[in-house]
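Why do we bother with holo predictions? Because pocket geometry can differ from the apo form. Keep that in mind while you read this record for coenzyme A.
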Amino acid sequence: MVASAVGTLAGPLHGGANEEVLAVLQKIGSVERVPEFVDDCVQNKCRIMGFGHRVYKVKDPRAIILQRLAEELFEEKGYDEYYDIAIALEKVVEERLGQKGIYANVDFYSGLVYRKLGIPNDLFTSVFAIARVAGWLAHWKEQLEINRIFRPTQIYTGPHNCPYIPLHERL
Ligand SMILES: CC(C)(COP(=O)(O)OP(=O)(O)OC[C@H]1O[C@@H](n2cnc3c(N)ncnc32)[C@H](O)[C@@H]1OP(=O)(O)O)[C@@H](O)C(=O)NCCC(=O)NCCS
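The structure, written out:
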């Protein structure tokens, strides 16, 4: 099950997108160049990495959560030009492509966060996958019980607001 989940992350339009996001931010180079970059992409019908989703036609709810955490991280570790360009890029893409249902997805912010944490680009997808293993296995376990595909309408039925218990204090 985990092997097939890892397999579905293959390719630049999927698991590799967060690496591509950083390449895009680097290519843009400055906040001032953002509108020109987006106009160019729209005109030439190219895909802007970190935007769009097969299921979500609104801003990816995971991106909203991660953006908030990214802000906390940048506040602590210091803002940089990548962050500024990303914020400007999201705003312009939303203005130009929002009506087509294209908004930031979770990969847009995950690349920024991983870079800020000092994780090398070619490990981004692996780190993303490691963080998801517990969730994948939970889905698999739930699914075995009723054998139906939930996504994207599944409803979480487990406990809410559980306190975080540090690892060394767990049994
Ligand atoms: C994720 C993705 C593959 C989903 O694609 P999809 O829902 O199948 O969307 P489609 O391929 O049917 O595209 C629908 C339209 O939106 C456009 N579009 C989709 N994603 C776009 C993007 N990131 N930038 C610009 N245009 C985009 C397509 O060109 C197409 O335009 P058209 O109708 O004028 O031909 C796609 O949005 C994408 O390639 N995103 C960039 C890579 C990325 O960030 N991946 C991580 C996903 S979590």
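The two ends are 27 Å apart (CA to CA).
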